[in-house]
DNA sequence: CATTTAAGATGACATTTGTCATAAGAAGAA
DNA sequence: TTCTTCTTATGACAAATGTCATCTTAAATG
């Protein structure tokens, strides 16, 4: 019996998938979590064989969770299940070492099969992702990402500089460089583009 | 046997819900649609008893579809199934005369029950919606909304003014007023807040 | 070891953004 | 028929944003 944990904040989908998987004779959903924090506790308590993780969840994202698990030496298989085909997410997941990455836009029937394959040591990725993976590298340095994230959260340049203990001019320079790199007209377009590509 | 159509663009959820509902002895999912346009054709061909409609779908939204159906005198029951607790959507759905409005954040078990009740002439609404429906009115005028939408798409004030055949100063005034109304620090925060509340 | 890149800074400058006072015309409500 | 709200506009001003050139130091790469 494959023991599965599902972490997904949309209750309707989580419930439906659990019921569905429980109909499979060799699969049992032993736990459901609403967010990454809840999931981490349940994983410690129950050590499931496979974790199905959504990415965008409150408190702690599925990617954060996966990275933590592997760092801590977890042997649990991890399948990311998300709406987002963003290259950034996919790359980060691969880098973390996940065993599968499926899109919510795929057929639900394949899910049980994916779980079995992953348990069998194989990897499972949505084909459209592998195909689209023409390395859209993040052109931003880590500092630039930090700055852009703060600006995207609504802070002014001056506030960002106070936050990061930088001079106001430096932040302005960073923003200028970011806008230039992303070929944007202004910070708003830069934010939109960076989010689309999964760069922040 | 209650004959059900599901229109939902996220294949995983659509598939899972269909399978789930088909396990119910008195319910049969007779059709699945990827978008509003596909749904409308299937409804004409098959006249289902109940339609489960997502709101945000490509080509034609679930709300557009529901309104069209009732205008055309359809007797099919309509249940909106969506992620969004936005007051605007809810109000529009009520106005159109839908028979149910459920959130994807609710339990999947209740779905079958909701379908039965609606067939029985009752209405079904997610309690949090009715409760939260303390009229979070959109403080923006329609012109202000237009301006903010364009700014959110990355245009500068000047570009917006060219777009709407207004003077640059007028657009600046609008933005100033918008920022003031939404109690934001700058346009970026205004955009975030307005999107959160579903005001643009 | 030389070179490149990232991080950080300054200064000068032009442009954009945000605020405020003020005003006129149109439409709708009391 | 007033009164209010919405749309549109100007002008003036302060603050924020974006661009560019230039410079230092540290770390990484060849």
From TrEMBL, chains A, B:
Q: Which SMART domains match?
A: HTH_LUXR (SM00421), REC (SM00448)
**Segments forming domain HTH luxR-type:** 133-198
What are the entry keywords? Answer: DNA-binding, Phosphoprotein, Transcription, Transcription regulation
Signal sequence: where?
A: none
Among CDD domains, the record links this protein to: LuxR_C_like, REC_DesR-like
Q: Which Gene3D superfamilies match?
A: 3.40.50.2300
The protein depicted here goes by the name Response regulator transcription factor
Q: What is the lineage of its organism?
A: Bacteria, Bacillati, Bacillota, Bacilli, Bacillales
């Amino acid at each position: 019996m494959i023991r599965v944990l599902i972490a997904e904040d949309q209750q309707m989908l989580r419930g439906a998938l659990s019921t569905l998987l429980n109909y499979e004779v060799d699969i049992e959903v032993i736990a459901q979590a609403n967010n990454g924090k809840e999931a981490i506790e349940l994983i410690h308590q129950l050590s499931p064989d496979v974790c199905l993780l959504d990415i965008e969840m409150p408190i702690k994202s599925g990617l954060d969770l996966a990275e933590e698990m592997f760092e801590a030496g977890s042997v649990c298989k991890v399948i990311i299940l998300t709406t987002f085909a963003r290259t950034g997410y996919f790359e980060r997941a691969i880098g973390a070492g996940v065993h599968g990455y499926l899109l919510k836009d795929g057929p639900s029937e394949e899910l049980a099969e994916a779980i079995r394959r992953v348990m069998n040591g194989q990897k499972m990725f949505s084909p459209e992702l592998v195909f689209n993976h023409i390395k859209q590298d993040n052109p931003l340095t880590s500092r630039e990402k930090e700055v852009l994230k703060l600006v995207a959260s609504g802070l002014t340049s001056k506030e960002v500089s106070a936050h990061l203990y930088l001079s106001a001019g430096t932040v302005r320079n960073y923003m200028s460089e970011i806008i230039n790199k992303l070929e944007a007209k202004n910070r708003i377009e830069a934010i939109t583009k960076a989010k689309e590509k999964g760069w922040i």
